[in-house]
Design brief:
Layout: E1 3-8, H1 15-27, E2 32-37, E3 54-57, H2 66-74, H3 78-105, E4 110-113, H4 116-125, E5 130-135, H5 143-152, E6 158-161, H6 164-171, E7 178-181, E8 200-204, H7 213-226, E9 231-235, H8 241-250, E10 257-261, H9 265-273, E11 277-280, H10 289-296, E12 301-304, H11 308-313, E13 320-323, H12 328-340, H13 342-355, H14 361-372
Parallel strand pairs: 1-2, 1-4, 2-3, 4-5, 5-6, 6-7, 8-9, 8-11, 9-10, 11-12, 12-13
Helix pairs in contact: 1-14, 2-3, 3-4, 4-5, 7-12
């Protein structure tokens, strides 16, 4: 049985981490799968792994200290800042050393990298028969970032892209490394679907600036002034949490906007089943995995089209709506339109559920098998 290693920064809560777990689970029946993580952020992975998957944490208790550095800056504590910066340099040094050592000693047949820096180390130090880069982030017009990815995969055999748009972009720019489009997967298609019979809105994700959650609150605030019966559940955590709490308090939204923080898969599924519309306000999104999860419950989605991944998942006016120019009023209009038209809402929900069938692990894993089992001639 072939051995496959997946290189991951950590196995906490996030889109990349969920994709890593989903891929590992889908491959584990046919291959010996190991995940090599730089950091151990939690006692257990954020998402459930099959028991036969081995996880190696390379750095023990060492982990990033961004929060501590930020606190030192805010408090103008120079001594603490110097201490934290010194520790951060040490962490980065050991992150490289431990991953390079792992690559040099690995007996894996195939190694899959999930970060540009891992791509470089895999290309230089990996001794496996097949080296695969796996890019999850959209460059969003940032040529500096795109060029970093292009440079990092020069010595790899494949670069897997999670969207057709990204695959087309890098295929015209990467030399020597074959670009392949393989979307991310959904855990499973649930048997239960939302009844879509309320005014409950939902959004799930990391509370960071690029996810547009402050804009989402502005959308809801204006919507709520039109109809106070709407509620909004936001599931996730991140650096914007305090700012969002303050906005909610200042705009008297505490009884209709609920910040749940990180929650289990079961909790998220329960909330999706009890919601009627999913909202995404991301500025950029390489692949809308949270969208297909919502769609799997028959929940129609509305997203700003600045989230590139949303444009690939949502068929405008079919299984959801795409809003141009980050137009808050246009998003509000679509929310009200769906709420007021039950038959259209249900039709969209049915089409949404149908459209995610191509993202199941069973379907997508076959695309991974095709490059894993392909003869080592790079194409």
């Amino acid at each position: 049985m072939k051995k496959i290693s997946i290189l991951s920064l950590h196995l906490g809560y996030g889109g990349i981490e969920k994709a890593v777990v989903n891929l590992a689970n889908s491959l584990a029946n046919d291959y010996n799968v190991e995940i090599a993580c730089s950091y151990k952020l939690f006692d257990e992975p954020g998402f459930k792994l099959k028991p036969n998957i081995k996880v190696k944490y390379l750095m023990g208790s060492m982990k990033p200290n961004r929060d501590e550095i930020r606190d030192a800056l805010k408090s103008f504590n120079v001594i603490k800042l110097i201490k934290e910066l010194s520790y951060a340099i040490k962490v980065l040094h050991f992150r490289k050393k431990t991953m390079v050592d792992y690559l040099k000693q690995s007996n894996s047949d195939i190694i899959i990298s999930t970060r540009d820096i891992f791509n470089e180390w895999l290309g230089k130090y990996g001794k496996c028969s097949k080296k695969i880069g796996w890019e999850h982030n959209h460059h969003h017009g940032n040529k500096k970032y795109a060029n970093k990815i292009i440079k990092s995969v020069k010595k790899l055999d494949y670069l897997v892209l999670v969207s057709k748009d990204l695959c087309n972009y890098y295929s015209n720019r990467v030399n020597g490394c074959k670009c392949v489009y393989i979307p991310n997967t959904i855990d499973e298609i649930p048997t239960n679907k939302s009844k879509l019979n309320n005014k409950k809105l939902i959004s799930v994700g990391r509370l960071s600036p690029e996810k547009g959650y402050m804009d989402l609150l502005k959308v809801f605030n204006k919507l709520h002034s039109i109809d106070s019966k709407y509620t909004l559940d936001i599931i996730g955590d991140g650096i914007l949490m305090d700012d969002m709490k303050e906005y909610i308090k200042n705009n008297n939204l505490s009884k209709c906007v609920y910040l749940h923080g990180f929650k289990s898969k079961e909790f998220i599924e329960e909330k999706l089943l009890d919601s009627s519309i999913y909202l995404m306000c991301s500025y950029t999104e390489s692949f809308g995995i949270v969208l297909i999860e919502a769609m799997s419950f028959g929940v129609p989605c509305i997203a700003f089209d600045s989230a590139e991944g949303a444009c690939e998942v949502i068929e405008n006016c079919q299984n959801g709506f795409l809003i141009s120019d980050r137009n808050i009023d246009a998003m509000i209009d679509k929310i009200i339109y769906l709420t007021d038209n039950k038959s259209i809402r249900e039709k969209m929900g049915n089409l949404a559920a149908k459209s995610v069938e191509k993202y199941t692990g069973e379907v997508v894993s076959k695309q991974w098998f095709s490059i894993i089992e392909k003869s080592d001639d790079n194409g």
